[in-house]
Structures are given as structure tokens and as C-alpha cells.
Design brief:
CATH superfamily of the largest domain: Ribosomal protein S4/S9, N-terminal domain
Helix content: 40-55%
Strand content: 5-15%
CATH topology of the largest domain: Ribosomal Protein S4 Delta 41, Chain A, domain 1
Structural class: alpha+beta
Number of strands: 5
Number of domains: 2
Order of helices and strands: HHHHHHHHHEEEHEEH
Largest sheet: 5 strands, antiparallel
Distance between the termini: 27 Å
Number of helices: 11
CATH class of the largest domain: Mainly Alpha
Length: 211
Amino acid sequence: MARYTGPVCKLCRREGQKLFLKGQKCYTEKCPVERRNYPPGQHGPAQARRRKQSDYAVQLREKQRVKRMYGLNEQQFRNLFQRAAREDGVTGANLLINLERRLDNAIFRLGLASSRNQARQLVRHRHVEVNGTTVDIPSYQVRAGDDIAVRTGSKEMEVLDVNLASRTRPALVEWLTLDEKKRVARVVRMPTRDDIPMDIQEQLIVELYSK
């Protein structure tokens, strides 16, 4: 499946804010969003001067921002939305909860990876186990009671020590617990909308896909 391999700072500039796609480097480097606060491309400055956006443009930008934040392509994101729409409850909240339940996001939330991209790489390279079985699918949906662990042969990886010791490491969310020494975590319960520490207007995404 196709994936974006270009400069991630362009994605941040297009959304007009830091998406923290480079992990710790976003805190230590001078961010292009701060130096060039307008969308990338030839017509970027002209777009920045526009004052009024249509309702569709606002909805599209919110969808693109969330999609890029979690590192999904359009088809993956749409499939997840359709799944959320079939589930009981509020569609927008279901969508965000399903995004949070992805294995690569859980690894990022645990602080074992500095970004979701790095977490995806750890999963793809078979460094992660769920309930004692190696899982190399980043989109795997974790459930309450699942045990997430770094494989025995990978526990001493330097990148894990660096990430866990980082001062920019995100705060551990309440639906996960972690034994840093053993590199073992547990999903104590399913996440809720209140557990997602990001300013997301999911209703705009629902409105966009409902047209």
C-alpha cells in the first residue's frame, strides 16, 4: 500500500501547525512552520492571505490534519470511518477511539517511540508482541486486557532507552499501564473520547464524509 515518503515538515506547514511527525526533533530543531508560516508550494503565500474559508475547506483541513497526525492514507482513513459509522454510539468519537486503539499509536502513547512513524517501524520490524504473539501489523486493534511487550531480543535497543528517558515524552494515558524495566504494557480498559489529549473537531470529519 502506498505511503507518504516526502518531507513531513511540508505536511505540518500545509495544516498550519506542528503535527510532531518527527518526534523529538520537532522540539529541538527550528520548525519550518515557525519560519515559513504559510502552505508549501508556489501559491502558498497567497493561500495564507485568504481570510475566508468555505465550510467544505474547513472540514477537509480537519480531516487531513487528523489523517496525517495518525499517519494513514485516504483509503485507510475512510475504511476506519465506515467501520465507526456501523458501530453503536457517536460516529466521530468511535472514529477517534479506533484510531487510538491502533497498535502503532499504543506504542507511541506508551513512550516507547518518539513518533507514530517510529512506532510503526518498530511494529513492522517485528519488535512487538501482543499476548505473547509477534504482531507486525501497525493497524492491529488492541483490546482491554491485551498485554503489549517488546520482544525479548529487542528489549535492550538503545532507541527504547532514549525514548523512555526523553523529557519530551508524552504523558502516559490512563487506559494503558507500563513496566518500563520489563518493557511490558497492558491495556487496562478501552479508551474513551476524554482520553484523547488532542484538540480535534471530529464532527467536521463526520460532516465531510456524510455529504
